[in-house]
């Protein structure tokens, strides 16, 4: 509880302090509406007593007008409170969404591998949605309704001490009973939200893989998994709802008892001439009015159970730290840079080394070709150079700097990578190519597109560079997407270019056509070309062959080609045959 309160306080302080003026306005509107709700029954009580005692019509008319005016004012303040609470909630939850999204984007690739995009969506948006009420109303309503409760009990004490004391005792028992049950639904609601996250994760995964699923006849398997998930979901929802319903039953039972006490007391006091009929009405009315704050406090506490589960999950997420530290400050010197690997060992979360004692040196401005069977660790080298993962031992240097000492943003702005899987975003052609960098001129983009033979493609688009591309590469062939990825690297103007099967989706004719462009791209830059096709490696200076993460051959391409017994020469002969 202490911990939960601490978490509430931190969240409220972080996200409500910047909009404290609105929160103050909201508090004033809510408190005014509460005060008006306590005052208005007094007018009714006065009206009844005046009518019973045969009071003047003028007095009755004034009471009626005052009653209507206060009722209208109450409505007005409630509208103002709702309006302000929506703005407060949206502003706070949007800020929290931004913080969570930024935090998740900074987390390591290993974290994202373990969590599907759908699950992340649900965790960022679903959990935060639940918090909107927490930010806008919960705290103010719990406080406001507690004040309303307190105010009603004081007024009741003024009307009649016996009635006031009895109903105060009743309200205390009711609140204790409701508070005692507060936490019973937290665990089921947390479990419910976890399954909900898995549900969205599964849907996202299956929509993304729809082509493979259909092509491989895996629809039944997918539906089976989906069905299994739904089967787990319903009982958890029922458990959570049942736990919340227990609270509802308790409050309904308590109000019935409260009304019985009020009726009994009013009848008893009136029969003994201790109170007027107007006061009897007031006692009954205020007891009914007591139900409102107690009921609201119950509802809010019920919501708090769901919110508490969400807050816990949000804190868990925010407490996950990236293993990869962003602390390096060193900056690479401009121009092409040398690469050196010294006794590098690396593994993902498995027992076995993915890269085993790797050492090589590529001078600045030279090009290295990496060959090896599927899964031998070629792409892993590229990921290490971009510091998507950190090595377990050894040293990787770019230029004079160990890459762990470089600022991550500087490192990543200086390395250009093209892979087989090109991500196209739902944005214009221009933004897809420049990544929203408006320093890059249209003229330079057009020149680069021309270099890669993409001008006819651009002309075929309805709005040229402004044409919106669909997410998931819709409307582009895999080869076209790969050419666009090459354009991106050109525009980025990096010091090191890594082409990881970058032309694997291109037909031989297109690959030949862009050869000149490739030469331009690699000019005055250091390059790494990872390829299965030997012709792609014609322009490289060095060859490195990998087998199960170990270097089995490394040397100058010319020299290896001359050595008849080298693996590379054998490969060349095999491909020539
Ligand atoms: N994110 C990851 N988490 C765990 N293991 C991984 C991850 N990425 C790759 N691996 C494993 O590391 C090994 C090397 O993978 P890598 O992608 O570097 O191979 P590759 O030589 O580039 O293969 P390909 O020619 O198919 O692209 C493989 O056994 C692969 O299963």
Can you describe what's shown?
With 577 residues, the chain is of the alpha/beta class. The chain has 2 domains: 2-319, ABC transporter type 1, transmembrane domain (ABC transporter transmembrane region fold, Up-down Bundle); 339-576, Rossmann fold, CATH 3.40.50. Helices cover 65% and strands 10% of the residues. The protein has helices at 2-16, 20-52, 57-106, 109-114, 117-159, 161-180, 186-208, 210-215, 219-271, 277-319, 378-385, 408-414, 429-434, 442-451, 455-459, 478-492, 508-513, 515-522, 557-562, 567-576, and strands at 339-346, 355-362, 367-372, 393-398, 401-402, 415-418, 496-500, 526-530, 542-547, 550-556. The strands form 2 sheets. It has a 6-stranded mixed sheet, with helices on both faces. Strands 2-1-4-5 form a 4-stranded antiparallel sheet, with helices on one face. The radius of gyration is 35 Å and the shape is elongated. The relative contact order is 0.08. The model has no long low-confidence stretch (mean pLDDT 85). The protein binds adenosine-5'-triphosphate (ATP). Residues 113, 348, 354, 372, 374-380 line the site of adenosine-5'-triphosphate.
Quick structural overview:
By secondary structure, this protein is an alpha/beta fold.
The amount of beta strand, in percent, is 5-15%
How many structural domains are formed by the residues?
2
Unreliable stretches, pLDDT < 50, 5 or more residues?
A: none
Bound molecules: adenosine-5'-triphosphate
The major sheet is characterized as:
6 strands, mixed
Secondary structure category: alpha/beta
CATH superfamily of the largest domain: ABC transporter type 1, transmembrane domain
SSE run = HHHHHHHHHHEEEHEEHEHHHHEHHEEEHH
* Overall mean confidence score, pLDDT: 85
Instruction: Figure out the total of helices.
Output: 20
Protein name: ABC transporter
Subcellular location: Cell membrane
InterPro entries: AAA+_ATPase (IPR003593), ABC1_TM_dom (IPR011527), ABC1_TM_sf (IPR036640), ABC_transporter-like_ATP-bd (IPR003439), ABC_transporter-like_CS (IPR017871), P-loop_NTPase (IPR027417), Type_1_exporter (IPR039421)
GO molecular function: ABC-type oligopeptide transporter activity; ATP binding; ATP hydrolysis activity
